[in-house]
Amino acid sequence: MATNKVSKATIDTIPIDELGGIAHDVLQSIFILNTTTFTGTKPTTETAMELIVSTFIDKRGNYKQGGLGAKKPYETAHKIILGCLYSFIPYVNGLALGDETILKLSRLPYSDGSNTSSARIKKGEIAKDLAYVPEKSGSAKISCAYFGKNVQYITIIVKGSKLPDGVFMNSDGQLIFPEGATTPLHVININGKRDKKVTNLEAKTDYYLYYVLIANGVVSALSIPIIIGCLN
What we know:
By secondary structure, the chain is an alpha+beta fold. Helix content is about 35%, strand content about 20%.
């Protein structure tokens, strides 16, 4: 019988815009609100975790406002806050031993290890937090948020404009263009990897990046696109 538990995979499903808030909720629950449940030696102190959470929220806010100078501090804060949450995995699981009441109190996401990715896609979830890093020689690195176990990631890169109105991806994986729609120049990457490298981009040209998720044969709708490009 599968046992509910917190894992690195469940923590990685936390949407990036919710990460700071959830980490704050974990701190409040474990260090302040439920001290009779969360006893013993914790993996960090309340003061240290408060600093980690506040720093991440601050650096995330600066990065969202724009500016390449804010990217590295944000990435560092992101790694640190994830490492902090990961450190609670053995602590919470050791106290809970599968008890959902304790797992829920921890405010950390948990599961019994079964793959729910296809069910989430069926409910309409799409790839989020698309990102890119421009590189030289007509290339760029692209990625999106981790979605779940055994998920494949497909990308569509469109030159110069978004896909025409009415274009959509159905749950069987058919990219459908309405009658009369002009098909823009586009490239589809089907290697399944979340982190990819795009090549043959033209300098000073905008490209629209879409991600599509596939889990157990169920295909998501197109993500909300972002504009990407290369350095030269």
